[in-house]
Write a structure and sequence with these properties.
Blueprint lengths: L24 H16 L6 H13 L3 E7 L6 E7 L9 E2 L7 H8 L3 E3 L17 E9 L2 E10 L7 H42 L6 H18 L11 H10 L12 H4 L7 H8 L1 H16 L3 H12 L20 H15 L11 H10 L7 H7 L3 H10 L4
Antiparallel strand pairs: 1-2, 1-6, 2-3, 4-5, 5-6
Helix pairs in contact: 1-2, 1-4, 2-4, 5-6, 5-11, 6-10, 9-10, 10-11, 11-12
Length: 396
Amino acid sequence: MAYRAPLNFLPTPVDRDDPRTGPDADRLQALQAFNAKLVCMTVDESSYVEVVQGVWKVIGCDSCALYLHDRLTGDLVLKGACGYEGLSSGHRISLDNPASVHAQAFLEEYLVHLDDVKNAPDVTGISDDVGSVLVLPVISNKGPVGVFDFSTRPAEGFSPQDVGMCSMLVDQMAYSLENIRLVGELSNSRDAVIRGMAMLSEIRDPNIAGHLNRICAMSGYLARKLLDRPGHHEVTPSFVDTIQRAAALHDVGKVGIPDSILLKPGKLTPPEYEVMKSHTTIGAEMLAGLIRTFGKYAMIYMGAEVARSHHEWWNGEGYPDGRKGEAIPLSARIVALCDVYDALTSRRVYKDAWAQEEAIQSIRDQAGKQFDPELTEILLARPQDLQEIRTRYEDA
């Protein structure tokens, strides 16, 4: 990146050898607890939000936010925030903006402390409600990877002791944040390989990419509706994240079904139908083999559940195990519903696409028989949302 001319204030260099003094006993206790959490926390994308919340509690400022550098676009991308109103996930800050305090801190690897934002008209912040701001670069052993900002509503909100404490926290976080990023890259690569396996199983269908994208999006949509809903304590943000990836594996076992059966335009004979049904056990065993070899990775574990049980019926008349009601894994009940909705509203070699109203009525008729009645009611409550997903992921 080219050097950016300084703003109308002097950034303060980060002196990592300078002693940090002044934090009170309560803050030191909070800092110790936060350090313990950094060591023990689960490492995934949601960890960024946990880090920001922990820092916010330690510092006690009005607002704080973490931005990491997107090497593809060159922007700083919001990973977590506390105290800022209306700041949405994924918010971006361009490094080409010479008035941005965040860009300044990142590009020059300096701590930027502005005591009175409202009397610095040439400075761009992220909220009109900020009186004082402190932005620190997050620096790994390979250079800056992002910035952490702290702000107060009143001007002159940070004492020298506050600046020291914030600097110490960001120093300590740098390794943990880099670890989260590297694990995230590994996870994305692993997911890409698994997603490729799912597509390979149905590569004979030219519209499979759209189908898989829709199933994943709808399953995530339905799972999010269950967050904090009574009776669904297992549904957490991690569950939602996993199912909207694992749903792609529901038909992975079709790789073992012959073309003559899989692509047959007419009705299957009873023996052919028995072969088709075996895709559930084939898929589950394939994924179970991966678990035995490589360990219990959440996406593969849930994928195995979904692959085996997404053709089970609420009333016990499904296959392969004849499971009934809540004995069917929730992940499989969710994917089963989304899979049938998408199958009905999509064109196949053996049928034309149904109108949305017709598909919805057919699914409603099967609530309590084929489908979990509660999930059916939730999924179909807003047909416009389902249509928006279909529009977003049209077949090629």
